[in-house]
Write a structure and sequence with these properties.
The structure is a single chain. The protein has two domains: 3-23 and 272-394, Aspartate Aminotransferase, domain 1 (Alpha-Beta Complex), CATH 3.90.1150.10; 25-266, 3-Layer(aba) Sandwich (Aspartate Aminotransferase, domain 2). Helix content is 39%, strand content 14%. The chain has 13 helices and 14 strands. Helix 8 links the parallel strand 5 (151-155) and strand 6. Helix 9 (255-291) packs across helix 13 (373-390). The chain is globular. It is an enzyme of class 2 (transferase).
Length: 401
């Protein structure tokens, strides 16, 4: 059976792992007992049921800390990365207003960060957003010029969710530390995909989400650095009504979700190196084959990137028609999952200088554990078919056997 026929049987082929990942079967197996059998409230440790739940939560905290090379008491559970970003940004601003009101970030952050910063501006914060360089890389010199005595926080994502470009996090952290400024990092797309060592890199606050790393939806975490046993900042809680999570996040803990996140982190620790090689091989093959047709550009392609992400613009093609054809055989996206239902072009691509027309003719491919070499071959073939339908210029181009 040909690769095309084999893969067509499971069409649409899923290439949108940056939007979400399927829950790993081993993760689900770990979670199931905590729905019905071990259903206790983790805060009620005076009972056997509650104690069992509490111990499971703490074990998961250790598993996630191990993946990040952190300490377990530096992990705070939330409902996901969006809440973690809100807790970090709003919590730091509330705690540090007496020191200053200036926050520096990037103009191509996830909407969970940008929308929160915009809201903070309404309450008195002064926000500076750094535009990326044309190739998608971070502008370190611009960061240095923006720092003032009023700067209380620098918030930059570890790797861009649309381009896959990895930011110079170590350098940004060093600049922040040099000026005694807190550094926050949205690492949602990087955790479990590339190595992160928080013992070596002085990030103060880091956010992540389980469903990006083959865990369940509805659970995330915020890492808050401790130095000499004390938190680097006393973040003000944004959800009150309880003393859980060191008083930083009220509410009954989602024990099954936390257990699943812990198992997903453990699996990621074991699979990390092998998966990176597999993803990069498949991603590079996809890009190499598509570049042969011409009139195509890989956004961020000259930068260090996540191994599983490719952001490709198709020139002189009607983007909406291209996506309409491809959606029958491929599950792909035009950008962030949180904004893909919006018809406006990606703010990330516009910030890179792409026209609205080209931005709307751009596809993000993100590969994952279930992606096979046959899936990549099938994807290349399907894109060639679609391009030949849309433009005579592609009629003579055929994929490499």
């Amino acid at each position: 059976m040909s690769a095309e026929n084999h893969t067509a049987k499971k069409a649409p082929v899923y290439l949108d792992y940056n939007a979400t990942t399927p829950c790993d079967e081993m993760v689900l197996k770990e979670m199931l007992p905590f729905f019905c059998d071990h259903f206790g409230n983790a805060a009620s440790i005076s009972s056997q049921h509650g104690l069992k739940a509490h111990l499971a939560v703490e074990r998961s905290r250790e598993q996630i800390a191990s993946l990040l090379h952190a300490n377990s008491n530096e992990i705070i559970f939330t409902s996901g990365a969006s809440e973690s970003n809100n807790l970090g940004l709003r919590g730091v601003y509330a705690a540090c207003q007496h020191q200053g009101n200036h926050i520096i970030s990037s103009s191509i952050e996830h909407s969970a960060t940008l929308a929160t910063l915009k809201d903070l501006e309404r309450t008195g914060a002064r926000v500076s957003l750094i535009k990326p360089k044309k190739d998608g890389s971070f502008n370190l010199e611009a960061l240095k010029t923006l720092i003032t005595p009023e700067t209380i926080l620098i918030s930059v994502m570890y790797a861009n969710n649309e381009l896959g470009v990895i930011n110079p996090i170590e350098e940004i952290a060093a600049i922040a530390k040099q000026h005694n400024i807190l550094f926050m990092c949205d690492a949602t797309q990087a955790v479990g995909k590339i190595p992160i060592n928080l013992k070596e890199c002085p990030i103060d606050i880091l956010t992540c989400s389980a469903h990006k790393v083959y865990g369940p939806k509805g659970i995330g975490a915020l890492y808050l650095r401790r130095e000499k046993g004390k938190k680097v900042v006393d973040i003000r809680p944004q959800i009150t009504g309880g003393n859980s999570e060191q008083g930083m996040r009220g509410g009954t803990l989602n024990v099954p979700g936390i257990v699943g996140f812990g198992k997903a982190a453990e699996l990621a620790s074991h699979k990390l190196g092998l998966e990176m090689k597999q993803y990069q091989y498949q991603r590079d093959k996809l890009e190499k084959e598509l570049m042969q047709v011409g009139n195509i550009q890989v956004n961020g392609g000259a930068c260090r990137r996540l191994p599983h992400v490719s952001n490709i613009s198709f020139k002189n093609v009607d983007g909406s028609k291209l996506l309409n054809i491809l959606k029958k055989s491929l599950s792909i996206s035009t950008g962030s999952a949180c904004s893909s239902s919006n018809l406006t072009p990606s703010h990330v691509l516009i910030e890179l200088g792409l026209s609205e027309e080209l931005a709307q003719a751009t596809i993000r491919f993100s590969l994952g554990r279930q992606t096979t070499d046959e899936d990549i071959e099938f994807t290349i073939t399907e894109i060639h078919k679609a391009l030949r339908v849309l433009s005579p210029a592609f009629a003579e181009v055929t994929p490499t056997p």
